[in-house]
Design goal:
By secondary structure, this protein is α/β, with parallel strands linked by helices. The chain has a single domain, classed as Rossmann fold. 34% of the residues lie in helices and 15% in strands. It has helices spanning 16-30, 70-75, 92-100, 102-110, 116-119, 139-151, 177-193, and strands spanning 4-8, 35-39, 78-84, 123-129, 155-162. The N and C termini lie far apart (43 Å). Helix 1 links the parallel strand 1 and strand 2. The chain has a five-stranded parallel β-sheet, sandwiched between helices. It contains seven helices and five strands. The structure holds flavin mononucleotide. Flavin mononucleotide is lined by residues 10, 12, 15-18, 84-88, 129-132, 137, 165-166, 168.
Length: 213
Amino acid sequence: MIKALGLLGSARKGGNTELLLQSVSAGIKSQGVNVELIRLSELKIAPCRNCGGCDETGVCVQQDDMQQIFDKLLSYDIILLASPIYFMGVSAWTKALIDRCQALWIRKYRLNKLPDKARSERKGIFLSVSGMKKPTVFEGAKLTVKSFFATIHVTYLGNLLFPGIDEKGEIAKHPTALNYAQNIGEQLVREFKNPEFRISIEPSDMMVEHDRK
Ligand SMILES: Cc1cc2nc3c(=O)[nH]c(=O)nc-3n(C[C@H](O)[C@H](O)[C@H](O)COP(=O)(O)O)c2cc1C
């Protein structure tokens, strides 16, 4: 059974990141796969303190809601990481989750102790929106996401990035964004089910521009 996880790094209900994530999820669900949605802003996930508590074990010693997420990051087949751009990077909720993966970094790179399931073929996509249309607006976030997916041993398939989307829910007015996102969700599952099929998303990057503003 294919398992998909959607990590939502925006607190804005009905906001652009949520709509984008819901559309990819709808595409995944249309292929018979459930998507577990986690709203990071509703959880208590403290930042990493670099306390060294995970150095010998690869297990984080901070007892908060992140403890429910570690296993999912190492076992779900599809990981959708969705964050708006805040100050040229991912949102603080998203970054707190990523930084806490230092424990998994230790497990993978120092202890060589990732479970077999984590090492199986798993795939991730980054979804994001930004208010500005500056060409470099997603660059910082993409570097962070690359390092996150590498750490949890997930293949980073690409990005769905929509610049120039600022008002709450504005992405719904975009002529193609949400349909496109749904189609990507469908393709993701098809790629899992059919070894011949490859999702048509650039391996490292895909910028979907639009005409507004
Ligand atoms: C704290 C904060 C920081 C932001 N920083 C940036 C930024 O650096 N660059 C940018 O293009 N947009 C920035 N934005 C705009 C958001 O990316 C934009 O409004 C986006 O549509 C929000 O997505 P949401 O509806 O999912 O919350 C910022 C918004 C907030 C609230």
